[in-house]
Amino acid sequence: MSKGKVLILGSNATRIEVKGGRWGVTGQYLNETVVPAMAIIDGGYEVVLATPNGEKPVIDKASDAPAHFGGDKAAYDRAKAFYANHPSMTARTLRSVIEEGLDNYAGVFAPGGQAPVVDLMQDQDVGEILRHFHEKAKPTALLCHGPISSVAAMPYAREFRAALIAGDPDKAAEWAKGWQYAGYKMTIFSSTEEKVIEDNICTQKSISTCLTR
To answer: What is the pTM of this model?
Structure first.
């Protein structure tokens, strides 16, 4: 018998804008999505994958390699097969999950890849979901770039994001007032790591892992 259901927040973003007005391909990271999902299922829980438009996330090509599985080709192949064929990896809409009832879920998880920076951080349904889990004190797990999804819980998430893009931190701070996670300590992809990407990858021909403006 299942111990309960865990919701995975997936992104539908397939491209990301970078400084200078360029665009790069993006997506969700294979290992960050599949390895936790498999562990959750092994722990006796059901997994439900949901995205803004109900379509299955596109996997970032940068993550689609055995190198992200410690060089273990067999582990990589298992992950690829799981993502392609396991019923839990068939996505549905975030809105349908909300309408079905969030009380049916024991926890929520947001994996990384840069894709959540594009859509999840400003998605109103993601905000509603995260506020529910926060209010109910249910487990909320955010991996690598996944913590950016927590911005959606702000009352003015879209305005906050726009202020960041415009380079106006003071305005962003104003829009961030009332954020449920203010004061929380989170382990996330660091600014210094992002700087390496900006300096060494965004200037190259391949910009699949670059940052938003």
So the answer is: 0.89
